[in-house]
Amino acid sequence: MKVMIAYTSKTGTTEECVERLKAALDGMTVETVRLDEKVPDLDSCDILILGAPVRFGKLPKCVRAYLKENEAKLLQKPHALFLCCGLAHEYDFYIENLYSDALRASAFLVENFGGTLSYEGQNFFGKILIHAVRSTIRENEIEDGEYTPEMPSILPESIGKMATYIRKEAEKLQKA
Ligand SMILES: Cc1cc2nc3c(=O)[nH]c(=O)nc-3n(C[C@H](O)[C@H](O)[C@H](O)COP(=O)(O)O)c2cc1C
Questions:
Q1: Which one of 55, 84, 128, 151 would you pick to mutate in the ligand 1 pocket, going by the greatest count of ligand atoms within 8 A of its CB?
Q2: Cα separations (Å) of 77 from 71, 96, 97, 114, 169?
Q3: Looking at the domain 2-116+153-175, which fold is it?
Q4: What is the pLDDT of residues 157-169, one digit of tens each?
Q5: How far is CA 160 from its chain centroid?
Q6: Which end of the chain is more exposed for a tag (fewer CB within 10 A), N or C?
Q7: Ligand 1 centre and the CA of 106: distance in Å?
Q8: Which of 16, 81, 73, 23 has the alpha carbon at shortest distance from 49?
């Protein structure tokens, strides 16, 4: 039983989530594939997990291209989806708009793995954008009476939930 995790990551957060998921799947055969480097061979796995960060309200180009070419095949494969995003309150909007209805409806799990708004690894433009978003979160939360504004972070419980669902799906496939 082989699990493939296909993803991309611009500044490392999605990659860290994938590493944590892989660690939580200890004992299972797991292959990770970066979609900006390679197209995964769907025939070589039993379960596919697809995940990506949101940037400018979109999925990265390589993920959109991958889905355009391979969605029909992916729909036939047991699969789960996740997103990493900095704006937690926009997650529902992103999930409904960035992955197709068919892909979400047939997934055994769709999860928000959280995200970070870190300056690390950003170029000059990215740093300005991160600064602007962090300031907006701070201002909104202070207006709402929250004096210790919370910045987004990776959600370990969501990654743990994904690992549990993958194990359950693998058991189901083994029994079938
Ligand atoms: C240039 C840029 C644009 C971003 N755009 C969005 C966005 O539209 N919505 C959002 O929720 N987060 C946005 N983010 C936050 C990223 O989703 C978040 O930093 C995520 O953890 C990045 O994952 P990665 O390190 O795997 O690339 C943006 C971050 C950067 C640097």
A1: 55
A2: 10, 20, 21, 25, 12
A3: Rossmann fold (3.40.50)
A4: 999 999 999 999 9
A5: 13
A6: C
A7: 26
A8: 81
Nearest CA to ligand 1 atom 1: 126
pTM, rounded to two decimals: 0.94
* Pocket mutation for ligand 1, best pick of 8, 34, 85, 96 (most atoms within 8 Å of C-beta): 85
Distance 5 CA to ligand 1 centre (A): 20
Domain ranges of the chain: 2-116+153-175, 118-151
Mean predicted confidence (pLDDT) in 104-119: 96
Q: What pLDDT score does 139 carry?
A: 85
Q: How far is the CA of 16 from the centre of ligand 1 (A)?
A: 14
Q: At 29, which helix (H) or strand (E)?
A: strand 29-34
C-alpha to C-alpha distance for 65 and 29, rounded to whole angstroms:
27
